[in-house]
Give the backbone structure.
Amino acid sequence: MSQRIDLDHRRFKQIVRGKIKENLKKYISHGEMIARKGKDTVTIPMPRVDIPRFKHGSGQQGGVGQGEGEVGDSLGEGEEEQPGQGEAGDRPGEHMLEVEMSIDDLAAILGEELELPNIEPKGNDVLKTTKEKYVGIRNVGPESLRHFRRTFKEALKRQIAAGTYDPENPVIVPIREDKRFRSAKSEPLPDSNAVIIYMMDVSGSMGDEQKEIVRIESFWIDTWLRSQYEGIESRYIIHDAVAKEVDRETFFSTRESGGTMISSAYKLCSKMIEDDYPVSEWNIYPFHFSDGDNWSVDDTTSCVSLLREKIIPSSNMFCYGQVESPYGSGQFIKDLNDNFSDSSDVITSEIKDKQAIMGSIKEFLGAGK
């Protein structure tokens, strides 16, 4: 019975996985997977999944091969009932099923569907972490590491040798000399850490729709990069004419007004990298989202200098996503393309609407850096 349950469960997981892959673009563009449940799982709303099975019919139903009619008779188009029309019925509507999936499985589906290459992290030979591995037994140690079976065995051997063991009343009472404890050994393991620095223009031209696009895309960027690294941090910078670091919630909910000076965000990003993330040990991913407006040509020149001299040399890649807005000029992506057309370390993407998010993710992550 348990084997059959396990088989059905595996089959169900395969069906769910197939459904997610089949509708991945819809899930991404609608933001339907972003409901986190705990640290390592997400909940996914999807139509109820029924295992296919044969059912016996009444034998009197109409349809092809049944009922009245002659060979060659037209089946007709039939009348299609439109939503919201017709009388109240007794049949249930479509029910949604919430399915839990691990972040690792979700990342694997994303990687398969977008054909994303695995990332080769830098810093593997420099940054080390340790893992406690229990490799032996010793006579001393804390009670929390006491090895019950080995302690019981030593007590049994002692009582047999001393002639105090009674098979009719096999009571084993360990004494201090019988106790055995697990012995831990610290093993160095190669590790790689990464930081994602998100920057976003929050001036008046970036509305709620544009921020929602950034929120959805950043979730999927996080999902993929977390599957590639043991440890990862996310930092958030918002800017209009000035830049400041904020938490995630503030990042996606703040709306300012006034002018836009992109260089203020790049200066703060550069200082953040310099102060907190040694280049030899960290994989650094700056992502900047804007509608393409900047205060002046001079500020754009400053941005190019900061990127060329500070940010790009320190980063695995620099990514700029331009979210289309009815109020933005869209000029900044043209300036970046003009200045970094020969650089594979600068990736730009135009995100016209939610339908373009999936293609933008592939543009950013498809290089495998």
Notes: The chain has three domains: 1-49+95-115, 128-188, 193-365.
